[in-house]
Amino acid sequence: MTYRILTLNNISPRGLARLPPERYQVGPGITDPDAILVRSADLHGFEVAPEVRAIGRAGAGTNNIPVAQMSRRGIPVFNTPGANANAVKELVLAGLLLAARNLGPAWLFARELTGDDAAIDAAVERGKKAFVGFELPGRTLGVVGLGAIGVEVANAAQALGMQVLGYDPQITVQRAWALSASVAQAASLEELFARSDAVSVHVPLNASTRNLVNAALLKLMKPDGILLNFARAGIVDDAAVIAALQAKALHGYVCDFPTLALKAHPRVITLPHLGASTLEAEENCAIMVAEQVRDFLENGNIRNSVNYPEAVLPRVPGTTRLAIANSNVPNMVGQISTCLAGAQLNIADLLNKSRGEFAYTLIDTDGEVGAALLGQIRAIPGVLTARIV
């Protein structure tokens, strides 16, 4: 079988190389695709073809994809958590150093110097006092969100001699194992902001995190505090940040999201969304998403989906595999099993996982699954997609 993959952005060739050409047709001109690979392309309003079985995002955020709509169609949306973690971590540390040493304003000051070298030297001696900063060892960094990136930032900051305070009520066991044991836990956002010299946010943008960093939290920070946002623009209330800077209740803000209000502020450093803009991160994301989409198309396995549960089942040799996405309702597995039993098919192995409103089932059966039986399963109320892989 040949699979067709539509690419809506330039995807690293190292990632696309994971899709063997003898089995995959890949490119921007593909019609009737089995899957779509994107980076920043906006799929809101984009007509996703009926044949599409999966969407892969070469990056962590999926705000550019109508995830809820895809969920209702039984289409898993994959992302690549951790693939760009080192790139973002390095940029966060760079931002922290930029703010702590006032390097942005200092650079602008130096670039605008005029006169001969003697005049420049004199101006430097007169002006450098305006850019006195502070060193990081002994200072406290608060990290909001301890996913792949947050953990890397916390561990790296500690290696620089900082005290680190973390807050994440939903930290996974996997991330907790990766986190340095010396990272302290904050009981609340209020505690974290009150105790930190600098705060870095690493949470996804959704209804519960929009304007998460607001005026009330900023009032708790120390007057020489630094706020860093390399996650998503909407997580921070820009108006509240500007008000805090104007009131000298906040020393500086470094973010990856320029706006008209922020970009020219003397104590704000805005970068042009450089978080994952390294060759290594782009390659890592492309490789990871290509492998995940391939495993789903060829084996039905789901890894790192933002809308469907993790479901990985080793294949039983000599069997036929069914992959079924459905609404998370009672007796769904029972109805599917009844259909198989009616066709005199034995279940060799089965995996059923749920996530919120949706569920996913992998079944290896002894014997062939014909078109009529597949149609019978698809006709079960609540079944969104069913296919043989």
Describe this protein's structure.
This protein is an alpha/beta fold and 389 residues long. It folds into 3 domains: 1-83 and 279-307, 3-Layer(aba) Sandwich (Rossmann fold), CATH 3.40.50; 85-270, 3-Layer(aba) Sandwich (Rossmann fold); 309-389, Alpha-Beta Plaits (2-Layer Sandwich), CATH 3.30.70. 32% of the residues lie in helices and 20% in strands. The chain is built from 13 helices and 16 strands. Strand 9, helix 9 and strand 10 (226-229) form a beta-alpha-beta unit. It is elongated and about 90 Å long. The mean pLDDT is 96.
CATH topology of the largest domain: Rossmann fold
Calculate Rg over CA atoms: 25 Å
Helix content: 25-40%
Distance between the termini: 10 Å
CATH class of the largest domain: Alpha Beta
Number of helices: 13
List the helices and strands in order.
EHEEEHEHHHEHEHEHEHEHEEHEHEEHE
**Large-scale geometry:** elongated
Name the strands of the widest sheet in spatial order: 8-7-6-9-10-11-12
What number is the mean pLDDT? 96
**Strand runs, count:** 16
Beta content: 15-25%
